[in-house]
Write a structure and sequence with these properties.
With 108 residues, this protein is α+β, with helices and mostly antiparallel strands. It contains five helices and four strands. It has a single domain, classed as Orthogonal Bundle (Arc Repressor Mutant, subunit A). α1 runs antiparallel to α4 and α2 packs across α4.
Length: 108
């Protein structure tokens, strides 16, 4: 993953509501969620949700598909994994990271 895409994805996740939306989509899995379901779950106005879904889509972390009259949003797992891979590969200056299971802290 190139650094500009990494920065764009991290910027998208840097907003509390967008992070909540993304987490909900990750939990939902491949079936995804409609905006109405997300809106009800997070108690957010439609226009606000639309703005944040657009930002997540532009970052490449979320995909959108039309199914009949509904829009289905899904987490883009390939891009999410690429982002995690990029961060993991560079977290310890290229050395393998040993993660403690109790604290989940990277030991370099």
């Amino acid at each position: 993953m190139e650094s500009t895409k990494v920065v764009q994805a991290l910027a998208a996740l840097a907003h509390p509501l967008r992070l909540e939306v993304f987490r909900a989509l990750v939990v939902a899995g491949r079936s995804g969620l409609t905006p109405g379901v997300i809106q009800a779950a997070l108690d957010v106005p439609p226009a606000t949700l639309s703005f944040h879904l657009k930002e997540l889509s532009n970052s490449g972390l979320v995909t959108q598909e039309r199914a009949s009259r509904h829009l289905i949003y899904r987490a883009a797992y390939d891009n999410m994994n690429a982002l995690l891979g990029y961060l993991s590969a560079n977290c310890c200056q290229g050395a393998a990271c040993a993660v403690e299971t109790t604290a989940d802290v990277c030991k370099c």
